[in-house]
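Inputs:
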Amino acid sequence: MKLNLLLKFALLLFLLTNATINASFQQKRELLQSHPNLILTKKSVLEIKSQLGNVPVFDKTLEKIKKEVSIEIEKGIKVPVPKDLAGGYTHTQHKINYATMQKAGVLFQLLADEKYAIYIRDMLLQYAKLYPTLKRHLLSKSYAKGMFFWQCLNDANWLVYTSQAYDCIYDWLSKEETVYLNKALFKPYADFLSIETPQFFNRIHNHSTWGNVAVGMIGLVMNDEELVKRALYGLDQRSENLKAKDNDGGFIYDKDGKAGFLANLEAPFSPDGYYTEGPYYQRYAMYPFLIFAEALQNKKPELKIFEYKNGVLIKAVNALLNLTDKNGVFFPLNDAQKGMSYYTSSLVSAIDIAYYFGGKNPELLSIAKKQNKVQLDITGLSIAKALEAQKEKTFVKKSLELSDGAKGNEGGIGILRYEKNEKTLALVFKYTAQGLSHGHYDKLSFSLYENGNEVIQDYGFSRFVNVEQKNGGGYLKENSTFAKQTIAHNTVVQDEASHFKNNYEIGSKHHSDKYLFDDSNPNFQIVSAKEQNAYSNTELHRTMMMVKEKELIKPFIIDVVKVTSTQNHTYDLPYYYLGQIIHSSFRTNVYKSQSTLGKRYGYQHLWKEATGNSHDSSTQFTWLNNKKFYTITSVTNKDDEIILARIGANDPQFNLRKDPTIIFRKENENNALFMSIIESHGTYNPVTEKAKNAYSKLLKIEVLVDNSDYSSFKIHFKNGKEKILILSNKNNRENKKHSIRINDKKYSWKGAYYYKLLK
Amino acid sequence: MKLNLLLKFALLLFLLTNATINASFQQKRELLQSHPNLILTKKSVLEIKSQLGNVPVFDKTLEKIKKEVSIEIEKGIKVPVPKDLAGGYTHTQHKINYATMQKAGVLFQLLADEKYAIYIRDMLLQYAKLYPTLKRHLLSKSYAKGMFFWQCLNDANWLVYTSQAYDCIYDWLSKEETVYLNKALFKPYADFLSIETPQFFNRIHNHSTWGNVAVGMIGLVMNDEELVKRALYGLDQRSENLKAKDNDGGFIYDKDGKAGFLANLEAPFSPDGYYTEGPYYQRYAMYPFLIFAEALQNKKPELKIFEYKNGVLIKAVNALLNLTDKNGVFFPLNDAQKGMSYYTSSLVSAIDIAYYFGGKNPELLSIAKKQNKVQLDITGLSIAKALEAQKEKTFVKKSLELSDGAKGNEGGIGILRYEKNEKTLALVFKYTAQGLSHGHYDKLSFSLYENGNEVIQDYGFSRFVNVEQKNGGGYLKENSTFAKQTIAHNTVVQDEASHFKNNYEIGSKHHSDKYLFDDSNPNFQIVSAKEQNAYSNTELHRTMMMVKEKELIKPFIIDVVKVTSTQNHTYDLPYYYLGQIIHSSFRTNVYKSQSTLGKRYGYQHLWKEATGNSHDSSTQFTWLNNKKFYTITSVTNKDDEIILARIGANDPQFNLRKDPTIIFRKENENNALFMSIIESHGTYNPVTEKAKNAYSKLLKIEVLVDNSDYSSFKIHFKNGKEKILILSNKNNRENKKHSIRINDKKYSWKGAYYYKLLK
């Protein structure tokens, strides 16, 4: 067998040399069709082998992978009968198996040690033997029950990775073996994931992307054009039931009847590369998107997949990197696990592929350097060589707007940033569409970060991925009863009901609208958006500004929320601060016994800790977190209620984090105006025990004007300075001239906002 | 003036040269009496100056101090009329003033730049002018109202630092100036802090230590023997009212009538160097203790202060360093702010002084290296030189016991540690005396740390030091109503009442007793203690073990609490875990509305979140914190109540942290046995989303025997292994032979415990 292998390599070398010098079209064709030709190719394998030892990051990754695979080979092959849910033994073992096979395939190609091929073959033979004996997972409650796993999604993962391993040993296997494996395992498995589970395969959803890519990858390996076509364009069959939903409450079938890989590339990505489900799922989907794109580029270059939709795949990687905090952790928009970052393996692939196929942007190298590992193919080699040549530039995250919607006209995400002397602030303002089934009911919500720490948090999802004790690692009930609800977010709630009354069908029809995004002045950055549909006959208009005053070390955030309605309502605006309350200018009453804030729409999960009335036209609330002092200074009416609440009621399994919030409540108003300034103003050091700038620099805020055309405020600083802010509520044109009279003084300016010293 | 200075230096040089070669006793005497001679001396200044530029850490510190002082000199001298409480402007300014003067004094000596002397002189003259116009602080509610500050303690701080500055410029000042300052400021101020405030000066307490040292230091500078004597031995006057108390509830007068620096060195330190108030206050007191010791060593070497009480000052530094977690943060025993660490400036002094005067222990250098700064005197120079010569050895924190009580017979602290491959565990078990007024009612309590993070926390105190908004930075009401109470700690509460019914007088009469401390077997370390007086007719006996099983990565903690009483009672044993609940083997009911757990003794501050019954003889409770999985496996009776509670009720100012606890409750029992095992068994990675070892390795625990002589348990591991633990409850002798029959099997061993595989 070893001799056989050597002969094959010799032949290949001969062919290649010939091919590059004087190859006929037919020879090239043959070359393309001989394995590996999916991610690794005969040519790239030779290129990589010639560089080994001179590309430290690549060499180090290879070494690590070698060790990991060695450990698994030593343990012996285990292909247990599927039984457990996520996080359980059989689930974890099958995950380990596909990951190890993929790695072993690469090692076989790069190190030419047959033990890797034998390992893969023997494991595949076991899977081929097991597969026909199985039915769909017994314990599963998934809308698409899996075979080796509880849900098809994991089975698709299995096939995406295993296809790569199979490609790497395809030519090494005997003809009989490949025919057997194709027939007994891979073809039926691909059919199972597609034809037999259309509700999984034929959607616009990250699940389907995995399904499409799984089928496409194995199709490419087996040279099965029908499977590749199925992957690219979806199934022909269409369901009658357009209202059918998955476990997350998402629609199973797209109303336009589109499906397949290209449709999944088309619809959920905006022209800016924002993925409508949010960065957590974008991160997850990036691997199948990009690995299949690489395979298609290798095998079907005529598709020009990386140029598809103006190069959206490369743009998507850039968008994703911009959706991270200082430490590279993704903003947890919509359903998202906190802590997930660009150190995840799918982002290693994404960076490497985007670098190689996307014009070799040197800023990507600085991320790759932090990741300190690469994909073991030509793209990773390219990164490793560039890093060795010290070509990297810092990836600078600037303020930017990312549009949502296939055409970029369904709202978006506005990110305002500040960075100086290691001090960073990032404001993330969300005015997107619903975001498919993983979307939250959080129109015009925001979150705020300082140095990679949350100041005003987005809750994220309620789920412990792969922690078996918590519902098998799946979504928890509290995700829909709390985490997705409006009151779980930093945005306005009308009459204690979530946006669109928590109705996914209705929410999916609408999106917020951008009103303004202007980061041209680093000392006054502004983003503004409107939401017309969350509540009937009500317009929500929120404008957020990041303002740097010369004499202050850090910028503060001005937050103006203007609600206009035809009827009277109650409005709640929560801020999910973290940490400990230091001072409030208003008095609150605490309770001898605690009750919930409400009965539905997430309110049933909030304990009412204290309530009070503002008693003043401007209030302050100071807290301490991560050794920093923060203050919210707010415009209030004298009878505004201020509620201090805490998450955690009606949570029998203790699935929720017991985090606090402050809620500003206005009752019985049709038009309501909320205006607050959020400052990070001081620090506390428990070693020196010094409190530096423990007090807000603001004295108070006054409303000067508030009508349908303009809202204007006077901001009083403690140092005596006074500033006037005027926002144009209706006309957002840059060149529009405005002129109004306030307190017998005339203000004239151009554009949608005015912010100056009061003279 | 400059010329004058140069002449003085020339003269000094002449004198010194002469002195060292052929000095008469009289000349030596004169030399000792010429300034500086307190911390810096004429001789050490010359030595330091000769080394400058060659001692990086020293040079760097000097550079930093220079910058800090420059900034202050540029700002100009500000000596405001005292007005504010802690954290306020005048308070902070006077603190800055004394700190800057002390630094400027050093700079004057080392850099011979007169601007520093002028700065100190001019500031002192302003203080001398201000002082006679003042009365005791108006807003203060202190038992010892201060003059420049709200409390005498801060005034004493002022004098300790300012004395050093004064010493540095004493010879530079004119005779008229020193006579004036002595008379107008320093002598009356020293009298104010002592004779006029005996309730502050004449105690056994860290406050008095500062007072003693303040008076002693200025006495040494002014050559006022009477003041030095007063400092060393206290005031003659004795109060009639032995029951008078300070703001913290501590006794003002010692019943034995002892006072002064030497008494404060005698009584609160155990022979092992443990300071009875706990490490947080020990850290604070170390500076006056050691800086005065250094001054005394310089000026009154015949006192042999560093040999006092078998060298307790040096031992105290060693004890303090051992009372820190992996990151150098002090264990928050008794009243303590979390986060305080050996990076604090008083520990820089302490390390430097202990190194120089305590035999130059190279392990101290590794701490000094981390501190990366030194005291600017001969001790700091010595550290800097040794660091430059790379003489440091790692400071190894081993398991150890520190006795409490002046004679070391009043219980103590047992610390069990484990460290391997960057994995560390530290168990801190407290069986001390009351700890003066800063003591907590927490007999036999413990806390547990992993890699410097809290696993089972000690709450610490309820106070935000120097955060003015929080009660002027002083102690909060909740410190006495919650933080000091027994239920705030991880120890047994009888009938919902704190130890000694929270009575300081009674608590101060008693201490717990060591039963056993044995760290000789690194795989089975054990500490055990008894408490006879916390509740009448009741004995509490707790034994804690750190056990490393070969097949487990980390050790676990076995916790056995045996309560013996003549009557039936309710017993609560809380564990203050942190983080989120992952699973419990018992069912709990959560409440629609939350009420407090009780009415008094801290129970009024706990919300009852859920209660349930164990329904089994062994229960498990798993949580996730800092990406680690922890489980408590407990022996339970079927009708034991398990309470999940959270701190925060009846807390109108939100002074308390809203941390959770699990409480095991046994009702209507006279003898109660609690037995639990605390495991750190797994990890969670939010980037790879892998849960590793998310389940406990233990199956259950069984009680085999429980009587007054022995308690025995069978520990069932999930891998089938079974271990037998037998504790001798009455006889703790190492050589005592035991033999008992359990389930028809005979066990024979020597010593107070048996832990072996069941064969």
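Chain A is about 35% helix and 25% strand. Flag for discussion at group meeting.
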